[in-house]
Amino acid sequence: MSESTERDARHKARMQRKKALIDEKIAQAQDEYGLLLVHSGNGKGKSSSAFGMVARALGHGLKVGVVQFIKGAASTGEETFFRRFPEEVSYHVMGEGFTWETQDRQRDIAKAQEAWAVARRLLNDESVGLVVLDELNIALKHGYLELDAVLADIEARPMLQHVVVTGRGALPGMIEAADTVTEMSLVKHAFKSGVKAQKGIEF
Amino acid sequence: MSESTERDARHKARMQRKKALIDEKIAQAQDEYGLLLVHSGNGKGKSSSAFGMVARALGHGLKVGVVQFIKGAASTGEETFFRRFPEEVSYHVMGEGFTWETQDRQRDIAKAQEAWAVARRLLNDESVGLVVLDELNIALKHGYLELDAVLADIEARPMLQHVVVTGRGALPGMIEAADTVTEMSLVKHAFKSGVKAQKGIEF
């Protein structure tokens, strides 16, 4: 056998084993209900990934609710874009600036609680298929909101509704409650080598 | 000082240090050019995060090109959604099924090369502000495309154009060439506890 034919044969055998494994996994999965997904870690992509899921959900005809717990944390680009579809996306930017910009803890707490009231309304709405709670982990980590109360509201949501929670430093209780947890880690960042934050990419 | 006032004061001091650090970082960043971002790792969110960046870029008025190197790897949801904006998004789904579905190496190579021809056209187009090369890492890892040729085309793109490359198993040369590399790691997955892939979330 030539080297190339041998490689093709090995490849085929490997792919057949992989296909069998994946088919089995899919067959085993049976229940259908709304998932709680958590995106945490120090890397990029926690919020972007949630907004990618918004696009996906819209493509599947679902209605979406977004609550940004920290204004300015996410790009204004997503907001500008998704506000084009007010019938499909209910978009709420709460809070004011990063906490290290405002430096007023009592005000941050009040803002976080206002934001949670909006989130709770979405979590009670059966017509909403996906709720994005952007940077909620930050509000929880700083103690602006109580984890138990937040989890109780999330648990009580409509059965088929999906929820995505983003923000670094997810609390252990949030990870415990989640169906899927993804950790975004920074391997390498242009910022560190002196490149300015880019419109359309970094903010 | 009461416990609460003390906590607020500590919080304020910490936030002031943090703000100083971040302001300094932003001041140091000077150059402005298109970035090469790589999303790799075994976790979820590699492609979703790229599609979130598409939404962000559209919100900033950029034009976007998307090439999916493996049909079926990403959700059909994003495709359905972003095809609503043919003036703004040039969307191409290449390849046919997962390699472990087709099990034909020569055909996969031919498909990957067709896909690269489309990618190269976008990488030559100054009017395109962001190019997403979804699952390109997979095509490279399997040797369907040559890394050196791919990197040469990426390097030769218009100066302000951003590129996002997704897929697990990014080759060392791709990581070396990138400005930002994010590793998505799986912490916990509903799939493992027997939950079916969900429309609007998992596919």
TrEMBL record, chains A, B:
Residues annotated as signal peptide: none
Subcellular location: Cytoplasm
Cob(I)alamin adenosyltransferase N-terminal domain segment(s): 1-26
GO molecular function: corrinoid adenosyltransferase activity
Gene3D superfamilies the record matches: P-loop containing nucleotide triphosphate hydrolases (3.40.50.300)
EC number: 2.5.1.17
Coiled coil: none
Catalytic activities: 2 cob(II)yrinate a,c diamide + reduced [electron-transfer flavoprotein] + 2 ATP = 2 adenosylcob(III)yrinate a,c-diamide + 2 triphosphate + oxidized [electron-transfer flavoprotein] + 3 H(+); 2 cob(II)alamin + reduced [electron-transfer flavoprotein] + 2 ATP = 2 adenosylcob(III)alamin + 2 triphosphate + oxidized [electron-transfer flavoprotein] + 3 H(+)
Regions that span the bilayer: none
SUPFAM superfamilies linked to this entry: P-loop containing nucleoside triphosphate hydrolases
Keywords assigned by UniProt, alphabetized: ATP-binding, Cobalamin biosynthesis, Cytoplasm, Nucleotide-binding, Porphyrin biosynthesis, Transferase
Pathway the protein contributes to: Cofactor biosynthesis; adenosylcobalamin biosynthesis; adenosylcobalamin from cob(II)yrinate a,c-diamide: step 2/7
Pfam families given in the database record: Co_AT_N (PF12557), CobA_CobO_BtuR (PF02572)
Task performed by this protein: Required for both de novo synthesis of the corrin ring for the assimilation of exogenous corrinoids. Participates in the adenosylation of a variety of incomplete and complete corrinoids.
Family from the record: Belongs to the Cob(I)alamin adenosyltransferase family.
Name of this protein: Corrinoid adenosyltransferase
Organism listed in the record: Pseudomonas sediminis
Taxonomic lineage of the native organism: Bacteria, Pseudomonadati, Pseudomonadota, Gammaproteobacteria, Pseudomonadales
Gene designation: cobO
